[in-house]
Amino acid sequence: MKQILLITDGCSNVGSNPVLAAANALEEGITVNVVGVVDYGTIGDLGGQEIEAIAKAGGGISRIVGTPILAKTMQMMTRKTVVQTIELAVNKELKQILGKSAGSIAELPLHQRAEVVQVLDHLTETTPLQVALLIDASASMKPKLAAVEEGIRDLMLSLQAREGRSQISVFHFPGRQGSEDAVLDIKWTSDMNALRSVFTKLDMRGATPTGPAILKVIDYYRYGTLNENDLYDRDYGAKEGMHGDYAAGS
């Protein structure tokens, strides 16, 4: 199961439309969730509308939160999306088994519903999960960086508690000298130690090319797998190490 978790505080202003990019992700089987990290009162209606539209186009959910509850929100959204995706798949299977007239899980007889819910719970905990964290590193996000770091660490801990294999990768945007590239900071990993140095190397500046960044993560998903066979290693490995400033797909 594949997710992009976009963490941003405002409107995109460079490059392709992020809503269309999120729709492309959904077509690739990647759900896009969006957390708007704001100081209340500082985000305009346009920013909130864009955050909601990106998540809707990407088949995910959106939340606008202050930094104190960021970590809890990231965990909640990740788990909720897993549950929703599995429930949709199970409902589809039920219709195939019981016929198109069959209702949702909630409409099943009580004893059947209990059995299906038990299966749902099992799948939620055991289904392999990849979460690509996409961090807005524009200048306005700098005061929120500590909360983002804490949120990612807490999310990693919650994913490690699952029975199924869970991995995260971390990207930030904009890229070098304000380019539209999303930079791959951490490849797919389940290792908490991989997070140690990523935030010390972020240069928080520039515009907000959210659309191009989402497209870069989609490209990475096309070549990254749960067994960590990664075709981007041609430019990424021994020379710069795990946390090199590498733009995925370049």
UniProtKB/TrEMBL annotation:
InterPro entries (alphabetical): vWFA_dom_sf (IPR036465)
Name used for this protein in its record: VWA domain-containing protein
Annotated SUPFAM superfamilies: vWA-like (SSF53300)
Matches recorded under Gene3D superfamilies: von Willebrand factor, type A domain
